[in-house]
Design goal:
21% helix; 14% strand; 4-stranded mixed sheet
């Protein structure tokens, strides 16, 4: 019996050995038959998903390496398809503003024409320009104690009218009687019923909306030849910053255009004037500052030059003003006033319009000349 028992023990041990050996073979089979796994770089930000490994199992390693999650939290797909906007890309309506040429955005305009480009001197914000060393001298020469005076109002014999005509307006000949050598030759598109300034200056201002050109006459009157006589005339391309030749006059003594410097009722009704305003001084020196191109004064350097730019001082309190007066004063702080001609001290000009309110404009007659300061906009030419 002992012999039989020993035989059974030996058989059991042999069977166990076979089982253990079989398990050992089973455990080794995946390493011998499976393909080598794709190994990602250590501490990579790539997402080690099973899908990613399967899709790249047969790819070259560099392909897998570049497919990494961006540093932002945006998904990889969004990062790949993000559009790149180039200068030639047409912007969408929601991200752009439509600008009608030649109207300048936020700039003055009349009849669909911009009154000079936005970077023109007339449209320049001078509120931060340095004060001239000669400022006090110039102010005193004009009259520090004299008061501001609107040279326009309800009375339509005051102010300077202007005409707006289409591009089809008939051109008529101009005969110059005094300053033809410094005038732009005709013809000009002036209608037979053109508005003429009252008084001896008799300015005729005409804006052609077809070409956006401004035609101005001084001392104008109709003649019997189908045209106009004038002491002088000037043409300004409102799409350009070009000045008149140095030393040339225009229809005012400074060689400047008149219309761009007028206060217009439509501007005040809109609540903003976005350009400089023309004004006069009793005496000037024989020099000018661009954009002026002409002088009509003496050799006294203490007198202001034509084209001098002044502004209402920033600390001058305008809280007590209202309506039309306040809009004008705000503009005088930002855009200032330009010396354009010899005349009464601190008189500034506006367009004739029956809608003016003298009671509102009269508030301005409380502002003294000492409230202004001259700013540096360039050299004096002689």
């Amino acid at each position: 019996m002992l012999g039989n028992f020993a035989k059974k023990i030996i058989l059991l041990l042999a069977a166990g050995a076979v089982v253990l050996f079989s398990i050992f073979l089973i455990m080794r089979r995946p390493n011998s038959t499976a393909p080598s796994p794709v190994i990602l770089p250590p501490a990579s930000s790539a997402e080690p998903t099973s899908t990613l490994v399967k899709e790249n199992t047969n790819e070259k390693p560099p392909v897998l390496v570049v497919v990494t999650k961006p540093s932002s939290t945006a998904p990889i797909a969004q990062n790949k398809i993000k559009p790149v906007v180039s200068p030639t890309t047409t912007p969408t309506a929601s991200t752009t503003k439509s600008v009608k040429t030649p109207i300048a955005t936020n700039g003055p305009e009349i009849g669909g024409c911009a009154i000079f480009p936005l970077n023109n001197s007339w449209n320049e914000d001078v509120s931060s320009l340095p004060v001239l060393a000669m400022s006090a001298t110039y102010i005193n020469s004009i009259g520090a104690g004299r008061i501001l005076h609107p040279d326009f109002g309800e009375d339509q014999t005051y102010g300077i009218p202007y005409n707006v005509v289409p591009g089809t307006q008939k051109m008529v000949p101009i005969t110059f009687t005094d300053y033809g050598d410094e005038s732009d030759p005709g013809p000009y598109p002036i209608p037979d019923n053109a508005k003429v300034e009252s008084g001896s200056d008799a300015h005729v201002l005409t804006l052609d909306t077809g070409s956006c050109k401004l035609y101005e006459l001084y001392g104008a009157s109709k003649n019997n030849q189908g045209g106009w006589n004038a002491a002088s005339g000037a043409v300004f391309d409102l799409k350009s910053n070009a000045l008149r030749p140095e030393g040339w006059t225009s229809t005012d003594a400074a060689g400047l255009p008149i219309l761009p410097g007028l206060v217009r009722y439509d501007e005040l009704a809109a609540g903003v004037i976005n350009h400089a305003i023309r004004f006069t001084a009793p005496r000037t020196q024989n020099g000018w500052i661009n954009p002026a191109t002409h002088q009509a004064g003496s050799s006294n350097p203490d007198l202001p030059p034509m084209g001098l730019r002044l502004r209402l001082k920033a600390d001058y309190d305008i809280s007590g003003f209202s309506g039309e007066a306040k809009v004008i004063l705000v503009a005088m702080k930002k855009y200032g006033i330009i010396l354009a001609d010899n005349g009464s001290a601190w008189f500034f000009q506006g367009a004739t319009d029956p809608r003016w309110h003298d009671d509102e404009l009269s508030q301005l007659k409380k502002v003294p000349g000492s409230a202004f300061e001259a700013v540096d906009t360039g050299l004096i030419h002689h």
